[in-house]
Amino acid sequence: MMDLQKQYQELLEKYLENLDEKNLYFAQQFSRKFIEQEIAPEDVVSLHKDAVMNIFPELRNEVATTHDFLIEMMIHYGLALREHQSLIKKREELHMEMEVAANVQEKLMNATRPNVDGLDIGYVSEAAKAMSGDYIYFAEHGRKNLSVAVADVIGKGIPAALCMSMIKFGMDSIDENESVPSEVLKIINRIVEKSVDNSMFISMYYGMYNVENQHFTYASAGHEPALFYCAKTKSFEQLDAKGLLLGVKREVEYEECQVHLHSGDFVAIMTDGVTEIRTEDGFLDSAIIEQLLFEVRDQSAQQMADYLFKQLAQLQNFRLHDDFTVAIMKKR
């Protein structure tokens, strides 16, 4: 500290002699030593005070008192600054951890679009924040059946993402013989009821398409109804089924329903990030979703999903308020 005091006083004396930019530059470079040695702001002021009093010993005592006043201010400023820097460092560390977690989640949860005879499939799943609380899942059961699941955790961020990871591993563990929609929901419900905190709620829509008879069988655990479009009548119908949210209680019965798909028909399964979009004017009318899908009914399932996302995101000024997931299965 004594060496710093001496060097600082020499720099100050040289500057006072010439008042030139060169000595100011040297002072700026010298300030790095304060950072390297972690000198507190109040100690820097104290160095300056001692240097001034040594250079101008005849100064009035009031001048020294003003320095003491500044030192006291800098003590509190220094404490606040260090706390602020600590918070910034923690935030940066958390941001890095979130990025790593989001990348891991993307790899774990990434859905692969299946190729099924006579069925066109498209989907979009976009997170409102770094990590998603939505989940979309496809599974082929031989050449006869395709299952699709769309789930939504009521919440966002890391807790929701962890719940979705657990749901995925539960889905992956289900035997092909247990893949009937109502039975699948019973199994996942028992996993959630046993493993998830009571404050977390999860909805899920599970459907299975049979290639041979073109039947789409579905069940719901408190999820948004899917939309069914009938090409013959050019009309929409909600595909809803009774069933509690996952994890509310251990033993639950889930209603199972069925619809037949003809050429041009499609089923759109969505989360509430699609159906409950908020704009500046309030919540969006659900009829808008039907209208948008109707406009592109002759396009591929993926083009329909992309169009729906683009149009609804635009209505929100491209700032999602909730995770957005839609899966579309269209009969060729």
Automatic annotation (TrEMBL):
It holds the Pfam family SpoIIE. SUPFAM superfamilies: KaiA/RbsU domain, PP2C-like. It comes from the Bacteria. Residues 116-331 form the PPM-type phosphatase domain. Gene3D superfamilies: KaiA/RbsU domain, PPM-type phosphatase domain. The keyword Hydrolase applies. Keywords: Hydrolase. InterPro entries: Bact_Sigma-Reg, KaiA/RbsU_helical_domain_sf, PPM-type-like_dom_sf, PPM-type_phosphatase-like_dom, PSer_Pase_RsbU_N. The keyword Hydrolase applies. GO terms for molecular function: phosphatase activity. SMART domains: PP2C_SIG. This is PP2C family protein-serine/threonine phosphatase.
